[in-house]
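Example is below:
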Amino acid sequence: MDSTDATSDVQQPALPCHLPPNAGPTIELIAALDAALIKARAKYGDLTKDADNPYFNSKYLSLDKLLASVAPALGGQGLSLSSSYQPTAAGFVVTTTLSHVSGGYRTSTFPVLDVSKSQAVGSSGTYAMRYNLTQLLCVAAETDDDGNAADGLKGKKSDYSSNGTRNQPAARPAPMSGNALF
């Protein structure tokens, strides 16, 4: 048996047999898209958070900077982005699609409920597009607060410092001596 026969017997890992609900049209084309995305991610530009959120006293990555930082890398791998708005009974949804020249695609959809004013529609649409893009491209556009803001825990401090060590609890006050009444 020569060496070419030995390598032809090696089985390649099987691809999953079902499609994710937000991707298609075939597993092989999604695999091609994912391979291109892996290569593109290695070439993303500066993703430093550049915008301020005064409500949460935090920084986030603006849509403009996100697009400027990723578009050249995506295009270089045959990837493109598009977004569309679709009306719903409660407002509208923004669907963003990451497509590959092979025909593979992935989508992300974000609901927008405040359609009371045109300014709110535009602002909410931009916000939804930014979230869709960060999800599709695996980019952290905001500081991860472990869901605290969503749970109404604004300003809650983490139990861990930035270097991963556990913060020490605040020292307890010394017990009062004498006849103090509380």
Observations:
- DSSP finds four helices and six strands in the chain.
